[in-house]
Amino acid sequence: MEPHTLRFKVAQIQPIPNTTPAPTLTTAVALHSRRRRRLHDPAYVEYSASANTDDGSCATLIVNGCTSSAYTEYNASANTDDGSCATLIVNGCTDPAYVEYSASANTDDGSCVTLVIEGCTDAADANYDPAANTDDGSCASNSCSSIEFDDYTYSLVEIGDQCWFAENLRTTVYADDSSIPEVTGLFGLVGIEHRCALRLQQRCC
User: Fold this and answer.
1) Predicted model pTM
2) What is the distance between the alpha carbons of residues 37 and 170, in angstroms, rounded to a whole number?
3) Which of 8, 65, 105, 139 is deepest in the core (most CB within 10 A)?
4) Contact by Cβ (8 Å): 112, 95
Protein backbone atom coordinates (compact mmCIF):
# COMPACT_ATOMS: atom_id res chain seq x y z
CA MET A 1 0.00 0.00 0.00
CA GLU A 2 1.33 3.31 -1.04
CA PRO A 3 1.91 5.85 1.70
CA HIS A 4 -0.04 8.49 -0.03
CA THR A 5 -3.02 6.23 -0.25
CA LEU A 6 -3.33 5.81 3.60
CA ARG A 7 -6.41 7.45 4.95
CA PHE A 8 -7.34 8.20 8.56
CA LYS A 9 -10.80 8.63 9.91
CA VAL A 10 -10.81 10.89 12.87
CA ALA A 11 -13.92 10.64 14.95
CA GLN A 12 -15.46 13.91 15.63
CA ILE A 13 -15.12 14.75 19.41
CA GLN A 14 -18.47 15.65 20.77
CA PRO A 15 -18.56 17.99 23.82
CA ILE A 16 -20.08 16.56 27.02
CA PRO A 17 -23.36 18.28 27.63
CA ASN A 18 -23.60 20.53 30.78
CA THR A 19 -26.35 19.06 33.01
CA THR A 20 -26.19 21.93 35.49
CA PRO A 21 -29.02 24.29 34.72
CA ALA A 22 -28.07 27.86 34.25
CA PRO A 23 -29.03 30.01 37.22
CA THR A 24 -32.30 31.65 36.71
CA LEU A 25 -33.46 34.90 38.23
CA THR A 26 -35.60 32.97 40.71
CA THR A 27 -32.64 30.85 41.87
CA ALA A 28 -30.41 33.93 42.37
CA VAL A 29 -33.08 35.72 44.40
CA ALA A 30 -33.59 32.66 46.62
CA LEU A 31 -29.83 32.31 47.27
CA HIS A 32 -29.51 35.98 48.10
CA SER A 33 -32.51 35.72 50.42
CA ARG A 34 -30.97 32.79 52.32
CA ARG A 35 -27.72 34.71 52.77
CA ARG A 36 -29.56 37.76 54.03
CA ARG A 37 -31.59 35.68 56.50
CA ARG A 38 -28.40 34.17 57.93
CA LEU A 39 -26.70 37.55 57.97
CA HIS A 40 -29.59 39.15 59.80
CA ASP A 41 -30.12 36.22 62.17
CA PRO A 42 -29.86 37.58 65.76
CA ALA A 43 -29.08 34.04 66.91
CA TYR A 44 -25.39 34.74 66.19
CA VAL A 45 -23.06 36.88 68.29
CA GLU A 46 -21.44 38.29 65.16
CA TYR A 47 -24.76 39.62 63.79
CA SER A 48 -24.48 43.07 62.22
CA ALA A 49 -27.67 44.99 61.49
CA SER A 50 -25.86 47.26 59.05
CA ALA A 51 -24.39 44.45 56.90
CA ASN A 52 -26.06 43.59 53.59
CA THR A 53 -23.68 40.89 52.28
CA ASP A 54 -22.90 37.69 54.12
CA ASP A 55 -19.15 37.26 54.57
CA GLY A 56 -19.35 33.96 56.45
CA SER A 57 -18.51 35.56 59.80
CA CYS A 58 -21.62 34.18 61.55
CA ALA A 59 -19.99 31.57 63.77
CA THR A 60 -21.00 31.85 67.43
CA LEU A 61 -24.54 31.03 68.45
CA ILE A 62 -25.92 33.28 71.18
CA VAL A 63 -26.28 31.74 74.67
CA ASN A 64 -28.33 34.00 76.92
CA GLY A 65 -27.66 34.22 80.65
CA CYS A 66 -25.94 36.17 83.43
CA THR A 67 -22.40 36.94 82.30
CA SER A 68 -21.08 38.56 85.51
CA SER A 69 -19.28 36.25 87.93
CA ALA A 70 -20.11 38.64 90.79
CA TYR A 71 -23.68 37.31 90.85
CA THR A 72 -25.06 33.98 92.04
CA GLU A 73 -26.96 33.62 88.75
CA TYR A 74 -23.71 33.64 86.73
CA ASN A 75 -23.67 31.21 83.79
CA ALA A 76 -20.18 30.38 82.53
CA SER A 77 -21.53 29.17 79.18
CA ALA A 78 -23.47 32.39 78.49
CA ASN A 79 -22.03 34.90 76.02
CA THR A 80 -24.91 37.36 75.92
CA ASP A 81 -26.23 39.02 79.08
CA ASP A 82 -30.01 38.78 79.37
CA GLY A 83 -30.47 40.83 82.54
CA SER A 84 -30.85 37.81 84.81
CA CYS A 85 -28.01 38.90 87.12
CA ALA A 86 -29.89 39.82 90.31
CA THR A 87 -28.22 38.53 93.50
CA LEU A 88 -24.74 39.74 94.37
CA ILE A 89 -22.50 37.07 95.85
CA VAL A 90 -21.84 37.38 99.60
CA ASN A 91 -19.11 34.98 100.65
CA GLY A 92 -19.10 33.39 104.09
CA CYS A 93 -20.02 30.32 106.12
CA THR A 94 -23.53 29.21 105.14
CA ASP A 95 -23.92 26.33 107.62
CA PRO A 96 -25.64 27.32 110.92
CA ALA A 97 -24.06 24.29 112.61
CA TYR A 98 -20.77 26.22 112.73
CA VAL A 99 -19.68 29.14 114.92
CA GLU A 100 -18.54 31.06 111.84
CA TYR A 101 -22.04 30.95 110.29
CA SER A 102 -23.12 34.20 108.60
CA ALA A 103 -26.84 34.68 107.96
CA SER A 104 -26.11 37.20 105.22
CA ALA A 105 -23.82 34.86 103.24
CA ASN A 106 -25.24 33.12 100.16
CA THR A 107 -22.04 31.55 98.84
CA ASP A 108 -19.96 29.23 101.01
CA ASP A 109 -16.28 30.17 101.00
CA GLY A 110 -14.98 27.31 103.14
CA SER A 111 -14.75 29.41 106.31
CA CYS A 112 -16.97 26.99 108.31
CA VAL A 113 -14.42 25.52 110.74
CA THR A 114 -15.72 25.31 114.32
CA LEU A 115 -18.79 23.22 115.11
CA VAL A 116 -21.25 24.82 117.54
CA ILE A 117 -21.20 23.33 121.06
CA GLU A 118 -23.98 24.75 123.21
CA GLY A 119 -23.75 25.18 126.96
CA CYS A 120 -23.05 27.67 129.73
CA THR A 121 -20.07 29.82 128.73
CA ASP A 122 -19.80 31.83 131.97
CA ALA A 123 -16.71 30.56 133.81
CA ALA A 124 -18.03 32.02 137.08
CA ASP A 125 -21.26 30.07 136.89
CA ALA A 126 -21.92 26.73 138.57
CA ASN A 127 -23.16 25.27 135.28
CA TYR A 128 -20.12 26.40 133.30
CA ASP A 129 -19.19 24.03 130.46
CA PRO A 130 -15.57 24.53 129.33
CA ALA A 131 -16.28 22.70 126.06
CA ALA A 132 -19.14 25.04 125.11
CA ASN A 133 -18.57 27.85 122.64
CA THR A 134 -22.17 29.02 122.29
CA ASP A 135 -24.24 30.09 125.29
CA ASP A 136 -27.64 28.35 125.41
CA GLY A 137 -29.03 30.04 128.52
CA SER A 138 -28.20 27.16 130.83
CA CYS A 139 -26.07 29.29 133.17
CA ALA A 140 -27.87 29.30 136.53
CA SER A 141 -27.02 32.91 137.21
CA ASN A 142 -28.94 33.97 134.13
CA SER A 143 -32.15 33.85 136.18
CA CYS A 144 -30.65 35.97 138.98
CA SER A 145 -29.27 38.93 137.14
CA SER A 146 -31.37 41.75 138.61
CA ILE A 147 -34.75 42.70 140.02
CA GLU A 148 -36.69 45.96 140.24
CA PHE A 149 -38.18 46.83 143.63
CA ASP A 150 -39.76 50.18 144.57
CA ASP A 151 -38.44 51.78 141.38
CA TYR A 152 -34.90 50.65 142.07
CA THR A 153 -33.02 47.89 140.28
CA TYR A 154 -31.11 45.58 142.60
CA SER A 155 -28.28 43.29 141.61
CA LEU A 156 -28.75 39.66 142.62
CA VAL A 157 -26.47 36.75 143.40
CA GLU A 158 -27.25 33.06 143.33
CA ILE A 159 -26.67 31.07 146.47
CA GLY A 160 -27.57 27.42 146.05
CA ASP A 161 -30.78 27.45 144.07
CA GLN A 162 -31.98 30.82 145.39
CA CYS A 163 -31.54 34.43 144.30
CA TRP A 164 -30.37 36.94 146.94
CA PHE A 165 -29.96 40.69 146.95
CA ALA A 166 -26.34 41.69 146.40
CA GLU A 167 -26.88 44.97 148.29
CA ASN A 168 -28.96 46.35 151.14
CA LEU A 169 -32.68 46.95 150.73
CA ARG A 170 -33.65 50.52 149.98
CA THR A 171 -37.22 51.35 150.99
CA THR A 172 -39.12 53.86 153.11
CA VAL A 173 -42.50 52.07 153.27
CA TYR A 174 -43.89 48.80 154.56
CA ALA A 175 -45.80 46.21 152.50
CA ASP A 176 -49.02 48.12 153.17
CA ASP A 177 -47.33 51.29 151.86
CA SER A 178 -47.28 52.90 155.28
CA SER A 179 -44.14 54.90 155.99
CA ILE A 180 -41.27 53.41 157.91
CA PRO A 181 -40.33 55.81 160.74
CA GLU A 182 -36.80 57.07 160.87
CA VAL A 183 -34.95 55.37 163.72
CA THR A 184 -31.77 56.61 165.32
CA GLY A 185 -31.40 54.06 168.15
CA LEU A 186 -30.44 50.38 167.99
CA PHE A 187 -33.60 49.19 169.77
CA GLY A 188 -35.94 50.42 167.03
CA LEU A 189 -33.89 48.77 164.32
CA VAL A 190 -34.79 45.26 165.52
CA GLY A 191 -38.50 45.62 164.75
CA ILE A 192 -37.91 47.48 161.50
CA GLU A 193 -35.49 44.84 160.32
CA HIS A 194 -38.12 42.15 160.90
CA ARG A 195 -40.85 44.13 159.12
CA CYS A 196 -38.58 44.83 156.13
CA ALA A 197 -37.85 41.14 155.80
CA LEU A 198 -41.59 40.40 155.76
CA ARG A 199 -42.19 43.11 153.17
CA LEU A 200 -39.48 41.72 150.89
CA GLN A 201 -40.89 38.22 151.21
CA GLN A 202 -44.40 39.38 150.32
CA ARG A 203 -43.31 41.45 147.35
CA CYS A 204 -40.48 39.40 145.84
CA CYS A 205 -41.02 35.76 146.61
Assistant:
1) 0.44
2) 95
3) 139
4) yes
